[in-house]
């Protein structure tokens, strides 16, 4: 492998991991958004103990639903075991 092809591979790898990170909040909302209103209500969060535990922290305006904006600001990530 030449130096330039290694550099290109590194850039592509960084780009790929960035794109998957950027989609995480949306994927998380989709996964738990049972009524598909684009937000996670406390009832929907019950399905995921980690999300439920962090609900109060993520829901910064305290209206009982987590929006995509609140989720991305919180930096919340599911920890998989
Ligand atoms: Ca919902
Ligand atoms: Ca909220």
UniProtKB/TrEMBL annotation:
Pfam families: EF-hand_5 (PF13202). InterPro entries: EF-hand-dom_pair (IPR011992), EF_Hand_1_Ca_BS (IPR018247), EF_hand_dom (IPR002048). The keyword Signal applies. PROSITE patterns: EF_HAND_1 (PS00018), EF_HAND_2 (PS50222). Residues 1-22 form the signal peptide. Residues 46-81 form the EF-hand domain. The keyword Signal applies. Keywords: Signal. It comes from the Bacteria. This is EF-hand domain-containing protein.
